[in-house]
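Page 42, continued from yesterday. The earlier attempt failed because a stray header line got pasted into the input along with the sequence. Redoing it now with the clean sequence only.
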Amino acid sequence: MGLTNGTGELAALSAAGFWAIASVVYGVLGQRIPPLQLNLIKGIIAIALLLITILVSDDFQPTLAPLTLLFLLLSGAVGIGLGDTAFLAAINRIGPRRVLLLGTLAPPMSAIAATIFLQESLNINAWCGVLLTILGIAWVVTERTSNNIESATTQLWPGIGLGLLAATANAIGAVFSRAAFTGTNISPLWAALFRLIAGVLIILIWALFPSQRNHVFGYPYWQSRRVILASFLAAFLGTYLGIWLQQTAIKLTNVGIASTLMQTSPILVIPIAMFMGEKVSWRAIIGVIVAIMGIGLLFYQK
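This time it went through. Structure tokens are written below.
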């Protein structure tokens, strides 16, 4: 038994950290910009940044096998186009803590799907790590605080449905990405680009429906410099760096481990909350300790 080289795991934790920061910004932006439009904005900004990175790094990808490209496009369409939009919409209905709790269902779903379809296997340490990490996160995000967002009963079940949809789409997208990396040498940078392109295309197709046009183009965000800067910051951290690191993690480690570590964003938000002056309870601290123990088990495998 020994430590893995940890590169994929560190990439997953780094992605979670950037998503934690971006989620704070998205929470503010979501009060002014509809979820579909916000998802489109961050996708377009991240695509532009990825293209610039490819040009600067001279990382030109050879022709891909059709099946690999298909898996990446499906991953982006489901995970970004559908999943991210559902996630942002769920936050507006039932608040971030409940949505993050539902999001902890994605890692076990990813691990089980990868076991069935990709013949990946996790040892007993890894499964214990998945369980401890999920328990730690759930213990934190279900805590009642005075500034929790309470939603009306009419919004509860639609919000739960959207949260479950986001978690499921996240899990399916991760498995498709892992399948794309199997038997190919595509770089995570290009994988992130193809996923984002597919996600943005799905949103644009969605926008063709008359009932959705106002949700995509309804808010003139370009008229506010503050909104533009906040959108760029969130897209840079949460989408450009976050998805790049996500694809790196999925390429270098088991999809169940990567998905679990990337669900630690609720834990990593705690230092941000402390910095912003919020009180952190002993329950939150205990949850962090349990999650860290789980993360340790994910790093320490046979």
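Notes: The beta strands are 2-3, 300-301.
Reminder to self: strip header lines before submitting.
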